[in-house]
Structures are given as structure tokens and as C-alpha cells.
Amino acid sequence: MIAPMDHDLQILQAVQEWDKEIYAMQETLEEIPSELTEINQEVERERSKFNQFQDQFKALQLKQKAKEGELATKEENIKKYETQLTQVKTNKEYTSLKSEITSLKADNSILEEGIIDLIDQVESSQKEAANQKKKLEAAEALLIQKKKELEEKAKTMREKIDGLLKEKKEKIKTVNPEIASLYEQIVTKKRGLAMVNVEGEVCPACQIQLRPQVVNEIKMKEKIIICDNCSRILYCAS
Q: Residue 54 falls within a domain, yes or no?
């Protein structure tokens, strides 16, 4: 016949295996928000880069349009001055208009080179923005996928935890209420490891040397023995 104390210890050993699973899953559940935060931050980084590329692209487009507008204005002035050339009556006026036309054409030549350069920059910037948009969309898709996976994982774990807690509740009813209460206090503080199996002369949890008397009391299984250092229940499985 199994002694009452030995029975309680055997039951608690089985219960602790469930508690280990429960606390391990709870730790995993606690890590899920930080996992999602990390992926969210990556999405925001990609979005920030995309916005920068978009802003750069739009700024270059505006710069190109401004230069094209400036070129068009100068072209109109050239036409106007060329029309005036046929109407001037003095050499001085003719020379002045010719000089103005030459200056405008020189300006336009520089403007045209600048516009060609800007067209290349706009095309390059547009490609960069398009590539970054793909990266952003990929990051957003990953976030949606990961969120779905983690939600399913969390749901499965919560269901398993609920099942184990129900089994534990029924199992622990057969343990002395005072011992069960003590176990619950310790397992909560120690996150799933309330009791340890002593095979030698040290506590397996904290590695403190146990006095010979304590080792003997553990083997006798007549009362609950608590480690003086880590406050866990000490037992001997053999």
C-alpha cells in the first residue's frame, strides 16, 4: 500500500509535468506580441523607405516640370524677339535683340541638358520607388501571414492549456489540500518547476549541498521537504 505522503508526491510529479507544459506554452504566448511588434516595425521601416523614394520621385518630377516650364517661357521669348527683329528700325535695336536671343538660346541649351538629366533621374527614382513598393507589399503580406499563423498557434495553445488545467484540477483533488496549496504557491513562483527529484546529495534545481539528515528525510517520504535555498519541494522518485 502506498503511504499518503508518497501518494501525494507521485500525484504532484504527474501534475508538475502538465504544469511544465502549461508554463512553457504561456511563455510562448507571452512572446507573441513582441514577435508581431518586430514584424510591424519591419513593415514600418519598409514603408518609411517607400515614402522617402516616393517623395524623392515627386520632387524630381516637380523639378523637371519647373525646368520645362522655364524652357517653354524662354522659347516664347525667343519667338517674340525674332518677330521683333523684322520690325526694328536701327542697328542698335537689332544688335540688342540678337544678343538677347543668343543669350536665351544659350540658357535653353543648358536647360535642355538639365531636363535630360532630370528625365534620367525621374526614371531611376520611379524604378527605386516601384522596387521599394514591392518590398513593402512583401513585408505587409508576411505580417498578415505571420499574424494568422500566430493567432492559430495561440488558439491551439490556449485550448491545450485549458484542457491541461481541467485535468490538473481533477488530479490534484486527490492530494492533501495543504500540500496541494503549498505546491500551487511554489509552482506559480517558480514558473512550472515546484519540485525536483533528488538523486544524490545536492538540490538539482539550485545545486546547493544538502545535509545528510535532509537527504534521509527526503527518502523516508514522511513529510514535505523544502530546499532551504530555492524553496522547491524535494523528493526521491525511487
A: yes
